[in-house]
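ok new one. same drill as before - structure tokens go in, u give me an amino acid for every spot. 86 of them this time. try not to just spam alanines like last time pls lmao
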């Protein structure tokens, strides 16, 4: 697991089962502003729709969907300088 910090945000990365969700849930319980990791949601949505934007079918399309969500998250939190964003 790796944590990269700047003045406004932390990026928490790591492989499956490393405890990222547990860390984020704990920080959220401490009233920190967090953003969700949307990979699973995008996969479930694409499977339900019969879509192709899946990491094993269309990695570029999947990456674009992840980017779009990350940008929405950034825009919704970056404007408030008083938030602790994870």
């Amino acid at each position: 697991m790796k944590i990269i910090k700047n003045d406004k945000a932390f990026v928490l990365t790591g492989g499956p089962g490393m405890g990222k969700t547990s860390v984020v849930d704990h920080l959220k319980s401490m009233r920190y502003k967090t953003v969700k990791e949307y990979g699973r949601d995008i996969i479930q949505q694409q499977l339900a729709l019969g879509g192709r934007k899946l990491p094993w079918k269309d990695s570029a399309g999947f990456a674009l969907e992840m980017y779009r969500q990350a940008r929405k998250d950034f825009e919704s939190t970056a404007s408030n300088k008083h938030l602790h964003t994870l």
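Helices lie at 20-29, 39-49, 59-78. and btw The chain has one domain: 2-78.
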